[in-house]
Amino acid sequence: QNNLNERVILPYNKDELYDLSFNINELLQRIENAIERKRQFTSDASHELRTPLSTLKGTLEVLIRKPREQSEYEEKIKYSLSEIDRMTDTIEQLLLLARLDVNSRTVDRSPVPLPNIIDEILSGQKKQILQKKLTIAFQKGVLLEEMVPQYYTQLIMENIIGNAVKYSKVASTLHIEITRSGPNVICNIQDEGVGIKKEDLDNVFKRFFRSDALHHKNIPGNGLGLSIAKKAADAINAEIHVESEFGEGTTFTILF
Ligand code: ADP
Q: Which catalysed reactions does the entry list for this protein (predicted)?
């Protein structure tokens, strides 16, 4: 709307302009990094889905080639269905991560007592806990009124408690403890499980990361759980820390 012939005088001196261009460069670098992270994520996600899809295709092609025994049909179809379930889980988790990326404000942030959330998750995991003969040592103390935002806390605890159960050794104990330090509510989840190698500790929150050590043990998973927990923690300014002794067990600490 200004007269185009009018000279524009920028309200900056030389040093300020230098700072400004430096900031712009830094911003551009950050945007480039973000784009690269997204590219990597898309490529990892496609890979993660393409592998089970080709296995599934192979299985079905074998079945259709010539008539088979009824039992072989049943076995191969059961296997295919479980692969489809696994892929559906992965897609659900990818959608959840995408939603967490835009930090949707529509989710339920109503405060609920932390012990209630943990009790609910433990009863949801009852079957796996019984199968593994785990003892649950849950110390709620007298802190029954400790309140945390429902939706995000559920995501954090579901993934961390789920992992603790999944990676625990048979007939071991899972310790859960809630304490308070100043304004912070602290929750420790300590398992006596397979543990995490030192060199893997920095990677466990990365999308699709799974420790190599686990593949040999046939523990199912897709490496997305902890990145979901981390995103959820960021959304409510909570922190997640992890300590582990490979072969001995792992402790996750969540600071609300
Ligand atoms: P998933 O469990 O589906 O592989 P996660 O993102 O939840 O994916 O965890 C990433 C990796 O971190 C796991 O594959 C495993 O190597 C390691 N990990 C997470 N929690 C534990 C735990 N409680 N004990 C041992 N290893 C763990």
A: ATP + protein L-histidine = ADP + protein N-phospho-L-histidine
